[in-house]
Amino acid sequence: MKDNVLNAALREVVSREFADIPQHESEIAHEFSDGFTRRMDKLTKAEKSWFWRMTNTVAKRVAVVLVVLMFITLTACSIPSVRAAVVDFIKETYENCIHLFTGEAGSKMISEHYVLTELPEGFTEINRTETDPMYITHYQNSDGDEIVLTQSITDQFSIHMDNEHGIISEINLSGMNITIYESDDCMVAVWLQDQYAFYLTVYGDYDMDFIIQLVGAVKRP
Amino acid sequence: MLALYMSFIDDESQRRLFEEIYLYYRKQMLLVARSVLGSDTDAEDVVHDVFLKIAKKHMSRISKIENSIDLRNYLLKATKNTALDHLRKRRHEKAVLDTVNEKNLKKDAEMADAELVDKICGGIEYERVVTAIASMDEIYREALYFHFVLEMSVPEVAKLLDCKMSTVKQRLVRGKKLLHKQLFGGDQE
Questions:
Q1: Does the global pTM surpass 0.80?
Q2: What is the 3-class SS of chain B, one letter each residue?
Q3: Domain A107-219, CATH 3.50.50.60 — does that match?
Q4: Which of A40, A197, B36, B161 meets the CB 3.0–4.6 Å disulfide criterion with A157?
């Protein structure tokens, strides 16, 4: 947005709030405690770990993930008792989106259906749809808020998440890595569970805790 | 463990910017936190918390701020809000700041940004705009500042202020409505 009268006025008023705070270190008489200095030194001067050095660019990240996946696949192949292929997301990060996908080693059909075993208050199931690669369950409440759970095979699964108009974060829930996208209108959680890929979309004003609880409730009925 | 925090900043230029910000603004931030909490120890904890939050979540946003006044305002606002959160927790206060009716909000949310900016830029004196903004409650003023000046999205503001997206939306809608009322004498159509 171009600078305009409104922006200039907002900036001036907000700046006034801090007008009495001196703008130079030397004008402020305060000695930080040893504890604070130690904590901040560690924070600002922390040595980069070997993993950070190896993965600090998009290309390197993709390469590292691919190498890790190749290693896992080779290991899996060399142990006859491991019958189910080990699947993980490959993540590519671009300027305006991230791409999560799997290779060809995952599940090729859905043999067990997963649903939300605990529904948030006011929500009811309104529809189930099954196609070859997906099983979709749709829930809604009286305000028109919606929850859509999609269970997918992991063979050649692929999803793009836009990071220009929302925020993408990752959490670990009971050992599962959950990628969460938040925008003004919806939240999406994507994760792998029991050989399937899931993405859960919530439309309405809800927070992160809400979607995390939903993810925890995705089970076989 | 602390090395992990810096791994959240995965861009070398952002790491340098983080260090510069720390060295230049830490004492200013401390004064803001101290003015809220009244204690140096608590203020240092707050400053540390703010830098952790920045390292974890906000460096990409901060690196987009080009105006140094806006950068300072952003950091001092973040510090003040974090200090107020600490104060609320200490006093066991409920952090319920808004009592805006949810149903009315959906209707009010239609208020268009461009229309409001055009109207204000179309003939209102600068000093009147400043006076109107200065008379607003701080929670609405800061929501408008983050939204219009820093062009932050609702999720970004919610993360910065550590509140729900619906709260941020409420403050934006209410703020725009209040500003319109101050300047034009009625609700925006």
A1: no
A2: CHHHHHCCCCCHHHHHHHHHHHHHHHHHHHHHHHHHHCCHHHHHHHHHHHHHHHHHHHHHHHCCCCCHHHHHHHHHHHHHHHHHHHHHHHHCCCCCCCCCCHHHHHHHCCCCHHHHHHHHHCCCCHHHHHHHHHCCCHHHHHHHHHHHHCCCCHHHHHHHHCCCHHHHHHHHHHHHHHHHHHHHCCCCC
A3: no
A4: A197
**A197-221 per-position pLDDT tens digit:** 898 988 888 888 889 999 999 998 8
* Mean per-residue pLDDT of chain A: 76
- Better-predicted residue by pLDDT, A199 or A56: A199
Q: Which of B32, B62, B91 is the last residue of a domain?
A: B91
Query: Could you list the residue range(s) of the whole structural domain that residue B72 is in?
Result: 2-91
Q: Do B134 and A13 touch (CB under 8 A)?
A: yes
Q: Nearest-CA distance from B105 to chain A in Å?
A: 12
Residues B87 and B134 in one domain: no
> Where among B40, B68, B91 does a domain terminate?
B91
pLDDT of A98 higher than 80: no
Structure-block tokens of residue A24:
């130079």
pLDDT tens column, A181-199: 887 677 889 999 888 889 8
Put simply, the answer to whether A14 touches B141 (Cβ < 8 Å) is yes
Q: Which residue of A has its CA nearest to B129?
A: A9
ipTM of this predicted structure: 0.77
Q: B189 lies in a domain?
A: no
